[in-house]
Known about the structure:
Elements: E1 2-6, H1 10-21, E2 25-30, H2 40-43, E3 48-51, H3 58-67, E4 72-74, H4 83-92, E5 96-99, H5 105-121, E6 128-135, H6 145-157, E7 163-165, E8 174-181, E9 187-194, E10 199-206, H7 210-223, E11 228-230, H8 232-236
Parallel strand pairs: 1-2, 1-3, 3-4, 4-5, 5-11, 6-8, 7-8
Antiparallel strand pairs: 6-9, 9-10
Helix pairs in contact: 1-7, 3-4, 5-6
Amino acid sequence: MKIALIGYGKMGKAIEEIALQRGHSIALAVSIENVEDNTIENIRKADLAIEFTGPEVAFENICRCIDAGVPVVSGSTGWLKHFDEVANYCLAHNGAFLYASNFSVGVNIFFAINKKLAELIAPHPGYDVHIREIHHTEKKDAPSGTAITLAEQLLQVNNTKKKWVNHEAEAPSELAILSERVNTAPGTHIITYSSDIDDIEIIHTAHNRKGFATGAVLAAEFLLHKKGIFSMEDVLGI
């Protein structure tokens, strides 16, 4: 498979390493140093695009890949207010699009555990819940896309929480996401349920970018030759 890497920073280079190990090739690598190469014509040289950029350009990049007729896997965060627009655009153009806030196999298992734990605790109002996430200081968005996914899973089943906030909760209806940025930490997410009797806590800690990069390549292999909108749940059969 020939891959276009739209976003060739640390994550893009980690994806390149895994992709080459798995027998794929890189047809295009776009960074801030060669944005002029990010054209429909160049993207069409690839079988599939993997897009890891910033929230200010992700929407445009994804649509450009769809316009090129090339399936696109995106892991950019901070742009999800446009998700429905992208999904509709993809379907209208008979394209293929897969988005994940986190491609790590371990994190997606963590998502499944988070959903199940939330369902088990929902009938027990004595527990309050909050999320803590820790990332490297270069991360541009807060809270992380992974933390938002975890929060939205909780909001679907928790009867007392109505919205998430990126600070300490000021009302019982608020689900606090506490964000910390620490040197080179790749990423830690902690869900804590507290009651007068006990605490229940689940934690995922990434040690490096390899898990994210491997998952992104697995998602690309899954998406090739497909049409429609997909997620890592489809890739992993969760």
